[in-house]
Amino acid sequence: MAETAEKSVFLRWTTILPVLALVAFLVFLGTDLPKWGVLVVALLLGGAVLASVHHAEVIAHRVGEPFGSLVLAVAVTIIEVALIVSVMAGGDESKSAALARDTVFAAVMITCNGIVGLCLLAAALRRRVAIFNPEGTGAALATVATLATLSLVLPTFTTSAPGPQFSAAQLAFAACASLALYGLFVGVQTVRHRDYFLPITTAGEVVDTEEHASPPPMKEVVISLVLLLVALVAVVGDAKAVSPTIERAVSDAGLPHAVVGVVIALMVLLPETLAAVRAARRDRTQTSLNLAYGSAMASIGLTIPAIAIASIWMTGPLVLGLEPTHMILLALTVVTGIITIVPGRATLLHAGIHLSILAAFIFLAMTP
Q1: Which of 49, 62, 1, 2 is closest to 21 using CA atoms?
Q2: Which residues are CB-contacts of 4 (< 8 A; sequence separation ≥ 6)?
Q3: How far is CA 28 from each of CA 37, 240, 298, rounded to the nearest angstrom?
Q4: pLDDT band at 207 (very low <50, low <70, confident <90, very high)
Q5: Any idea which fold 69-213+255-366 has?
Q6: Residue ranges covered by each domain of the chain
Q7: DSSP-assigned beta bridge partners for residue 346
Q8: I want to staple 346 with a disulfide (CB 3.0 to 4.6 A). Which of 121, 130, 166, 286 is the partner?
Q9: Greater confidence, 170 or 212?
Q10: Looking at residue 210, what is its pLDDT?
């Protein structure tokens, strides 16, 4: 029976699709995809994303909260950094100079408004009111706001380098500050004030362990960890393969190049979105918010240092400063986020407000 169960693991779609997606990446590596190849790779890319969500949830179930929320957040950030660097390295310098800024800011808007809005919507529809811990969630939002201001707002106003750019010293400071602040938050979340980030049910009960099922055995967790890595590599490779098609489609449609950053952010944050909405539907709104704000935090706190290191070898400018429209949207996101979080309870109205801000961001990205 054990042998049959072991074989069945390798026959599941969550095992087959990541492997096929990785094979597709290796087959089409260094070649221009034909139209049918783009379709095949895109489908396998979606399958690999869904599989990564499954394996991340298996690992999260084993390690518990809030450690589980970090697994997918860090994994997705690795995808984001790899995509940004690869597209910047292979694209037009004049167009890719602001790709890191556009992608990181899009990730912040999608997580803080899109994922948060969808999670509050799912929780409120199911149980009328979404319940969460304002201490932990408020600390997460404050960290996101600080990271976004240091890395994306200040370059617009500094004068040491021409344009909305940091000088080398300023970029090094922003990278170190971002990494240190993210590390401090992770320490607070997982050790010193772990109880602030545990799920709270609508009955007011703190949930320290998953109910209805015992944690998966270590063997299954190890298999999921390996398959998660395979899925992430496949997602990075397949997304890089279809990115030229995305850039051509954006250009042919007459849309600004910043839309490419939005598309990249949407692709890499799909696993987070699915996992967060699932958690919200299980009355784990706090877990959903951990995923949302943790992803935003990781997108800045880990991406900016990685881009700063990569800029040593890359040629061309690195534009990080936000435009006035984006700064207004960021300020609106922070203000509405504070109003949503402080009571520790949210309704459909709060969800609608955040989703409307995301809709405004996407619309203005296409028609600035």
Answers
A1: 49
A2: none
A3: 8, 11, 30
A4: low
A5: A middle domain of Talin 1 (1.20.1420)
A6: 69-213+255-366
A7: 130
A8: 130
A9: 170
A10: 47
